[in-house]
Design goal:
- With 517 residues, this protein is an alpha+beta fold.
- Helix content is 55%, strand content 10%.
- The chain is built from 19 helices and eleven strands.
């Protein structure tokens, strides 16, 4: 029997079934419950009904069976009823605990059930009106109402315990390594999204379970869950959701750090030896800024090394995956950034194909330079690149205001009515020479060390990662070497005074420009 035929039959027999239920139950409300139970079973079993002749025999068989089940359940349980006279909040009294339970369960209904229930019981809409409002058939409306009543009744009779995230929410830091703009960072700034990801990480949860675990009513979660699913941060498996990105917990990060601690001094030793041995060769490349102070030049050479070291891939890493935004990138989260995470990095493009590279140091307020001064500010980027190129004759008053801000922050100085950038400026050819110098050192001295660190990190991360995310472990372990391969060794170099944070006032230590000519 098709849906049209079934809908017609259900309409025809609804009154008959209701009369049958009135004769079997003491109240109108119970009759309505029972009749909807029977109608639901008929709708669910429609494909088993051969034709019109078989329908009525099947209907009475279903009605009898459903009534028997209903009667046995009624004898065992005394449940709260969902009636149409839900009082306003101000009408509640201490002896109306059933209303509190009802309101609680309404917040846990998923969106389609919640909308139908509110329209019918609170706004007083008929099934045909709800059908029109929600653009679904009347049979589906009746099905939704039936399911809602059962879900509400079951929920009102059980104890609900909120999860730990409801009173101890997690803070997740979104991490990104790949091509294109880092849209993941901004997308994951929502605390609600962070805690949905945390809730679904080790366990697949229904929307109701997510609501209880986070302590957030479903009406506030619906859109967030949809957006997370759309961007592939969580995935749906039947009625359950599970997180689709690796979360490196504090415990996991600390375990990795302890396991690779023997490499920290080794990397620092080799890096210090490389900088001391190669700084003269670096200066002789002849870039603009090669006359900066020794400390700044040491920092600049170390910055190129650190950037490349963060991208070293060792071992059997899989192809970089596609994100929900369409770019090729690794996405993951860490529970929090500790005091050892002392750098952030970024690269932005100018209008002529020029590039500005940032490797911001930001510990104890001693940093100098911040990629947020330029990130997403196309006009600032282009003005600064023009200054690096020496094209300073066509600035408007509006541009001069931006330059004044750059002077204040230390990126530009004014000398003899001319503007000069306080960063090293490389041509593309000069930058390739520096890259080759650093790459040769990494290949000869650090690749084996980094490979061993990645292998250890992957083993530990695998033990902390759900089964369905195991295919991401090697790639993320390689990408997440930042603290152990860069930040901790750099901190050791600062403690040794091989690098110092006594910055030269007219030089930027970790920002540089590469001009495309």
């Amino acid at each position: 029997m098709n849906e049209t035929e079934l809908s017609k039959k259900i309409t025809e027999v609804s009154k008959t079934i209701f009369s049958y239920c009135m004769a079997k139950t003491p109240t109108k409300e119970e009759a309505e419950d029972l009749s909807q139970d029977i109608l639901y079973e008929l709708i669910k079993s429609a494909e088993n009904i051969r034709n019109d002749k078989a329908f009525y025999a099947f209907m009475w068989s279903v009605a009898g069976n459903v009534y028997k089940q209903w009667y046995r359940k009624k004898r065992k349980n005394n449940t709260c009823e969902l009636t149409e006279d839900i009082p306003a909040k101000e009408d509640l009294t201490e002896d109306r605990g059933d209303i509190y339970l009802l309101r609680r369960e309404l917040t846990l209904l998923s969106e389609k059930y919640r909308k139908a229930t509110i329209l019918y019981y609170i706004e007083g809409c008929s099934c045909s009106e709800i059908s029109s409002k929600l653009a679904i058939s009347e049979s589906m409306v009746k099905y939704l109402l039936f399911k809602s009543r059962n879900i509400l009744k079951e929920g009102m009779s059980m104890e609900r315990n909120l999860g730990e995230l409801s009173y101890n929410p997690k803070t997740l830091i979104p991490m990104y390594s790949g091509q294109g703009p880092n849209q993941f960072w901004q997308f994951m700034q929502s605390k609600i999204r962070q805690n949905i990801v945390s809730a679904c990480y080790n366990d697949s949860l229904t929307v109701q379970q997510i609501s209880l675990e986070t302590g957030i009513p479903l009406p506030y979660l619906d859109d967030e869950i949809r957006e997370l699913e759309n961007k592939k941060i969580i995935v749906k498996d039947g009625t359950h959701y599970k997180t689709n990105v690796i979360v490196i917990t504090s415990e996991c990060a600390e375990e990795i750090e302890r396991a690779v601690t023997k490499y920290h001094n080794l990397i620092a030793d080799k890096t210090e030896a490389f900088i001391n041995a190669k700084v003269a060769e670096y200066k002789n490349i002849g870039f603009e800024g090669n006359d900066f102070s020794e400390n700044t030049l040491h920092w600049q050479l170390a910055t190129v090394l650190f950037r490349m070291l963060g991208g070293v891939e060792c071992g059997d890493t899989k192809a970089v995956p596609k994100t929900g935004w369409g770019e090729s990138a690794y996405l993951w989260c860490v529970e929090k950034l500790n005091e050892k995470h002392i750098f952030s990095y970024c690269c932005v493009d100018g209008k002529h194909g020029d590039k500005l590279y940032f490797f911001d140091y930001w510990k104890d307020g001693k940093g100098k330079g911040d990629h947020h001064d330029f990130y997403g500010k196309e006009r600032y980027i282009n003005i600064f690149c023009d200054i690096c190129r020496g094209d300073t004759t066509a600035f408007s008053e509006y541009d001069l205001e931006a330059i004044a801000e750059m002077i204040k922050k230390g990126y530009v100085v004014k000398e003899n009515d001319a503007y000069r950038a306080t960063v090293p400026i490389y041509t593309a050819e000069q930058y390739r020479a520096i890259i080759n110098m650093v790459k040769e050192f990494i290949t000869a001295e650090l690749v084996t060390i980094i490979g061993e660190m990645d292998q250890i990190a992957a083993q530990i991360l695998s033990a902390h990662t759900p089964k369905h995310l195991q295919n991401q472990v090697k790639g993320i372990a390689s990408m997440d070497k930042f603290v152990n391969a860069i930040c901790i060794p750099a901190t050791l170099l600062i403690e040794r005074q091989a690098l110092t944070t006594a910055w030269h006032p007219l030089e930027m230590p970790t920002t540089y420009a590469v001009l495309k000519k």
